[in-house]
Amino acid sequence: MAELQALLFDVDGTLADTERDGHRVAFNMAFKEAGLDWNWTEEIYGQLLAVTGGKERIRYYLNDFNTDFDKPENFDEFVKGLHAAKTKFYVQLMQEGKVPLRPGVERLIKEAKAAGMRMAVVTTTTPANVTALLDSTLGQGSEDWFEVIAAGDIVPAKKPAPDIYFWAMEKMNLTAEDVIAFEDSSNGILSSTAANIKTIITINGYTAEDDFSAADIVLDHMGEPDQPFTVLSGDSKGVTYLNLASVKQIFAGE
Ligand code: XBP
Ligand code: MG
Does the active-site annotation cover 10? Predict the structure, then answer.
């Protein structure tokens, strides 16, 4: 096994709990602004998360949940417009600092950066959303810490397809033998493991019941020295929070 060369981070649910308090809220704000009476409750949103990508999720909602809605003739434009408004609201929410990073995320990223470990973001969300979250949490310009931001419509087939991981690795001139992924969801791990990438899972409220049998380790969060994680499956070798050394151990399967 080659030495670990790069950390590939999913964003939504992994770096921060953006789904419930960010994306969902922004969707509802966009619906309201457009004069629509749709309301994505926390519960409905949990079901809608089966489909990744905001535009894809709106279509899924209208096809499977709100089938009475009369789709306008220019439906593609309608969805694009709604989604652009949602992105505007999401960016605003991030700028207001509405969603913090999850435990251990900032510490691990800063340690990796200081050690010269290569890093990338691999997500289905819109690039502007990634910038807004990183700016508001790690600081202005922190997206430059990541060699590649693989996001949004860069590849047509979003997670669970592996395409976005392949795209990121190609840009970095790395293979699945060189990298490890951080994910939080079923669609995320389907994507990373279809690309043959070792994967560390940190669950959240929406994904606790997902199937993570393909993960190298499943944790409730990345942990902090004073806030140990709980190991849900796999072996942390006595470690209670993720640091670069423990990530390398998990990668090596030691
Ligand atoms: C994240 C998503 C995204 C966001 C919405 O999945 O499903 O679609 O919910 O983002 P993952 P956009 O964490 O697996 O990348 O509205 O910008 O598409
Ligand atoms: Mg995710």
Answer: yes
Q: Could you confirm whether 12 is annotated as catalytic?
A: yes
Instruction: Give nearest CA residue, ligand 1 atom 16.
Output: 54
With beta carbons less than 8 A apart as the criterion, state whether 212 and 230 touch. no
Q: Is the pLDDT of residue 1 over 80?
A: no
pTM metric for this prediction: 0.96
Please state the rounded mean pLDDT for residues 20-45: 97
The residue whose CA has the least distance to atom 2 of ligand 1 is 52
**Closest-approaching ligand to the CA atom of 53:** 1
